[in-house]
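Why does residue order matter? Because the sequence determines the fold. Keep that principle in mind as you read this record.
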Amino acid sequence: MPKVLISDKMDPKAAQIFRERGVEVDEITGKTPDELKAIIGDYDGLAIRSSTKVTKDILEHATNLKVVGRAGIGVDNVDIPAASAKGVVVMNTPFGNSITTAEHAIALMFALARDLPEADKSTQAGKWEKNRFMGVEVTGKTLGLIGAGNIGSIVADRALGLRMKVVAYDPFLSPERAVEMGVEKVELDELLTRADFITLHTPLTDQTRNILSDENLAKTKKGVRIVNCARGGLIDEAALKEGLDSGHIAGAALDVFVQEPAKESPLFGTPNFISTPHLGASTTEAQVNVAIQVAEQMADYLVSGGVTNALNMPSLSAEEAPRLKPYMALAEKLGSLVGQLTTGAIARISIHAEGAAAELNQKPITSAVLAGFLRTQTDTVNMVNAPVLAKERGMEVREVRTRGESDYHTLVRVSVKTEAGERSVAGTLFGDEAPRLVELFGIKVEADLAGHMLYVVNEDAPGFIGRLGTLLGEAGVNIGTFHLGRRQAGGEAVLLLSVDEAVTPELIAEVRGLAGVKTVMGLSF
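Structure:
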């Protein structure tokens, strides 16, 4: 009988479900890391919330562990690479607390509009400062939505019910999906200048970190009120305090902070600032939902091998897995590549399989492409929820098969339709195992997609490669591999270089300064 440890406080229904499905379960909470290391070797599964930290050290002592289940969305407390190396599946419950988080954002918006915390404190202190607390109505105001995925769309629905106008910024939000939601799709700068209230509903990634920076906060309408129930780090907290102190920002409410638990913050005590201790998912209904879901998912995996909402493992049958594994690796890399190189809303993404690839089950390949593509924007996507997230963003997904003759024994092509037109990348398998890029935006180029890479589009001219090599050498950057392709002599050329470390913004700026450079980006796989 499989054995699971519930190491964080969880609704009793989780333990009940485990037992009903033939899984032995122990509920032992509040253990220190050393105490957890001493017992973790006895368990096949570990069910957690946010308190337990599943570190590499813990995993090294988890000799029998097969699955970690997070009752909630965020998995910042799990070392996923270390878990993958140990063969431990990491699952989460990405949709169990969406309504709860959206409602908390709306609650904080009302609290800001009517200054409820200060009014309550003043009244209970025996004062009757009726004239001091002059609020604003939300009716008729413009709500700026940064992030229009699952939670953001619920907030938009609630705000529209309050007769607010909603403008939304989300690179993945298609015009069709915006119309369906009843919101106006805008660029970030326009949102900042128009919104009376701003609420954030995006994951914390390299692209979204400090999305409300000092510079962007300065672009906001005077008197704006800001709510963040998503992730700490989306707002420059020091710049937010300056905006509150100056009066440019009328109010701010944060449920999340850069450092949590937030025992202290320069924002604490600032007038017109409201804070809550990461309560976005803290309702009875949400806690029950995520507890039930994580128990069902973990029990399915331990008893029957079913995989749902895994962050580091595809949803596959045992028979399909060995044959599809290299194709999924290729598909995920192609999806990641096109995701990193494409900006703006994606109306359609097409996955075209040729040759041997066309004879396989396309769903796992398509899911791998979508997971690679969407992972450039969110750290909670996996092969199970990627199609759902793509649908939420209004992306049309097409699968095309071409059986018979092909230039390659097997080929997978990923094409995206954007406002700028159609762009595609293609790859094959060498020796039926090794993924290899063979075409990039219409240019033939063969390259391995791995580690850190530098992508450069330049005018094909004598001496450019030498100048680039000299610049990289002077910057102390070691080149691992060098791949070059071009449309025609003297035309547009593409370079893909693998380097030992992540490409810095400073290096990108230096390369961009070279004569003939049109585009330069750092890539990571």
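The chain is about 35% helix and 25% strand.
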